[in-house]
């Protein structure tokens, strides 16, 4: 019977017992109880218990098994009562109690019982104690865990399992250095030792150390190592991580190429690298796709800003007769947030089962989705339906108000968040709302309330000041920050953006030169800065300087400017446009419509503003023709040629809307008496039929 138990043939072990019950011994009964524990067959277990003799009930092995049985069947009181009646308590009995408390989510009771422990713990007990301390991680657990480690560890012993548990505990305590000391002093390391260390490094965001240890490993990697290293590489996504991760994947044995856990991590890694095609290749090769691997590819598309592909996979899941879980719905909601089109959002929201709609993280995601799609009303309805909002709920709703130009509402809600519950995101969302609504006094009050001013919080305040052209005050914040910290490129980008809006070419040049000096390797930021600088030079007629900057951008930086794109939905289909895009089947009608609109706009006093043109104008172009080809204008034009014209036009743009498009859209809404919603990279603009925008021109 023991042979069957050891080989995990639990059902056969029970059948053997039933066939020979009249001759079964305490040993075989004990084995049968163990089999019931492994099978989670509590009814059979209780039948066996009822037939145990008083002598059997006093057997220490059976007592230990009964503690396990009671704890696993969640009869904690019975386990505690039995334990209290035992006179000679052994380490396995204590270990059974400790493990049972952990199973029943009562880890503090492990420490309570340990304090009353009448014998010295041995390895089997230490292993469970370390796991309990790792779960609790409070001061008491840290004191007990470290004391046990110091008192009981002999580095010449061979119990690798206990060492691994100790390392796991220390990593959970964030005592990385002590964990490393234990690791280095171990005589015998197995694959799980390396896995515990690498996982600990990952949990403590020491991803480079994880790769260092992987490169020194002298054991063959298993499923755990592949998963962990792929995750380390995904988090870093630098050149070293890309080299290691892709090589590791290429060398991976075939036995892991249908392992869902490993492949999920590999897909996530490749998606984080931006290597979408190889991630898709791995996904397609997987023969037995489950909901987890579908979720991985969906999330990867969201990471790479391909929300339509994400929703296509979501539809494929339903066609495959798989049931989307909470994680998949959450990713689908995220994809809808990126698209920002109300009808798409509603389609996904309508499919969420009622029981999921009550889950807090789904509600938080829905608040964010509706807000980014321009429906602050629906976001508000979800928010008000949340029974126990957490700080993410509050932050999401504050952010929704800010995005939609409702700064006062954002501040009012921020005031209702208890001070001790606010986090960095709370302050950033509130300051952003002030910035987007021009509420300087309120921003100063909130900024002064911040207990610890992080670089992101300071950057948000700088953005607020620069939108109102208070550059001296913003510069003082940067100078004070840099007295104790390294320069932060985003702060300079906020100043540069504000200076561009102020058309202050001298200040723009000064800021950009400082950026080149401080951040020579931040190519993407330098590209964005060069666009802003050349743009401001053009706006004040300094065309030679503008051309010099564009030439520098092309020759020195060598990074392409991100192409502007806009999309809108017509009759259930998404249409996407780039600037001067003629790919749409109704392109001729769209451009003809804007030719007519241009005449109406000029009649209503609009002058096309060439300062928003960021490239040289060709001989066959005019300021008007260049500006009328912007992607958001083409998306609006497509809506205007529909019959009937939609009552609400909705456009999502991947970059910030330019000043000319903003002015034009206000006039179109007024002339054609249509509501227009444009979600750009920074905020949601609601253009009303009275010719006003919700942002009050704070964009």
UniProtKB/TrEMBL annotation:
Pfam families: DYW_deaminase, PPR, PPR_2. InterPro entries: DYW_dom, PPR_At4g14850-like_plant, PPR_rpt, TPR-like_helical_dom_sf. GO terms for biological process: RNA modification; system development. Keywords: Repeat. One of its GO terms (molecular function) is RNA binding. Residues 605-698 form the DYW domain. PROSITE patterns: PPR. PPR repeats lie at residues 190-224, 290-324, 390-420. NCBIfam families: PPR (TIGR00756). This is DYW domain-containing protein. It comes from Rotaria magnacalcarata. The lineage of its organism: Eukaryota, Metazoa, Spiralia, Gnathifera, Rotifera.
């Amino acid at each position: 019977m023991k042979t069957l138990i050891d080989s995990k043939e639990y059902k056969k072990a029970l059948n053997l017992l039933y066939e020979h019950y009249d001759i079964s011994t305490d040993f075989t009964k004990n084995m049968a109880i163990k089999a019931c524990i492994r099978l989670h067959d509590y009814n059979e277990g209780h039948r066996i218990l009822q037939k145990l003799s008083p002598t059997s009930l006093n057997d220490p092995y059976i007592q230990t098994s009964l503690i396990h049985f009671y704890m696993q069947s969640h009869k904690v009181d019975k386990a505690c009562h039995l334990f209290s009646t035992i006179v000679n308590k052994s380490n396995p009995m204590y270990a059974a109690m400790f493990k049972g408390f952990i199973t029943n989510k009562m880890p503090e009771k492990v420490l309570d019982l340990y304090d009353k422990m009448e014998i010295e713990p041995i390895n089997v007990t230490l292993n469970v104690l370390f796991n309990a301390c790792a779960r609790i991680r409070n001061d008491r657990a840290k004191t007990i865990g470290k004391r046990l480690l110091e008192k009981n560890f002999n580095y010449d012993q061979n119990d690798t399992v206990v060492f691994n548990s100790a390392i796991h505990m220390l990593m959970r305590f964030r005592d990385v250095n002590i964990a490393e000391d234990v690791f280095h002093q171990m005589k015998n390391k197995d694959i799980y030792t390396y896995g515990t260390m690498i996982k600990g490094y990952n949990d403590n965001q020491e991803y480079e150390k994880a790769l260092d240890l992987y490169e020194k490993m002298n054991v063959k990697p298993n499923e755990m190592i592949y998963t962990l290293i792929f995750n380390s590489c995904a988090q870093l996504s630098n050149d070293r991580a890309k080299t290691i991760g892709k090589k590791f994947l290429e060398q991976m044995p075939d036995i892991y190429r249908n392992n869902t856990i490993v492949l999920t991590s590999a897909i996530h890694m490749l998606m984080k690298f931006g290597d979408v095609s190889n991630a898709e290749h791995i996904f397609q090769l997987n023969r037995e796709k489950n909901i987890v691997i579908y979720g991985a590819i969906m999330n990867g598309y969201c990471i790479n800003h391909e929300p339509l592909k994400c929703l296509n996979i979501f539809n494929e899941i339903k066609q495959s007769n798989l049931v989307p879980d909470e994680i998949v719905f959450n990713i689908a909601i995220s994809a809808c947030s990126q698209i920002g089109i109300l009808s798409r959002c509603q389609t996904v929201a309508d499919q969420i089962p009622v029981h999921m709609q009550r889950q807090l993280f789904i509600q938080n995601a829905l608040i964010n989705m509706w807000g980014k799609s321009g429906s602050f009303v629906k976001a508000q309805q979800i928010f008000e339906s949340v029974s126990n909002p957490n700080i993410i709920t509050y932050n999401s709703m504050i952010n929704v108000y800010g995005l939609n130009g409702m700064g006062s509402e954002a501040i009012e809600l921020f005031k209702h968040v208890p001070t001790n519950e606010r986090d960095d995101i709370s302050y950033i969302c509130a300051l952003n709302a002030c910035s987007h609504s021009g509420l300087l006094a309120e921003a100063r009050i909130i900024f002064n309330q911040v207990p610890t001013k992080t670089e992101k919080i300071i950057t948000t305040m700088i953005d607020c000041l620069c939108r109102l052209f208070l550059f001296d005050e913003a510069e003082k914040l940067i100078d004070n920050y840099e007295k104790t910290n390294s320069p932060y490129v985003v702060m300079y980008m906020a100043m540069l953006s504000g200076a561009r809006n102020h058309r202050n070419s001298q200040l723009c040049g000064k800021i950009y030169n400082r950026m080149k000096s401080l951040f020579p390797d931040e190519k993407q930021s330098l590209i964005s800065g060069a666009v802003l600088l050349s743009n401001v030079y053009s706006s004040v007629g300094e065309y030679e300087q503008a051309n010099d900057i564009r030439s520098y951008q092309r020759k020195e930086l060598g990074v392409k400017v991100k192409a502007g794109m806009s999309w809108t939905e017509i009759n259930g289909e998404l249409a996407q446009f780039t600037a001067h895009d003629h790919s749409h089947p109704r392109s001729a009608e769209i451009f003809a419509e804007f030719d007519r609109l241009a005449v109406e706009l000029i009649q209503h006093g609009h002058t096309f503003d060439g300062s928003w043109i960021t490239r040289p104008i060709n001989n066959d172009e005019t300021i008007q023709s260049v500006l009328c080809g912007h992607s958001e204008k083409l998306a609006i034009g497509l809506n205007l040629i529909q019959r009937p014209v939609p009552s609400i036009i909705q456009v999502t743009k991947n970059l910030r809307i330019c000043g000319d498009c903003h002015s034009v859209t206000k006039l179109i809404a007024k002339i054609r008496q249509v509501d227009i919603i444009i979600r750009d990279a920074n905020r949601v603009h609601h253009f009303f039929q009275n010719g006003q925008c919700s942002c009050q021109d704070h964009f």
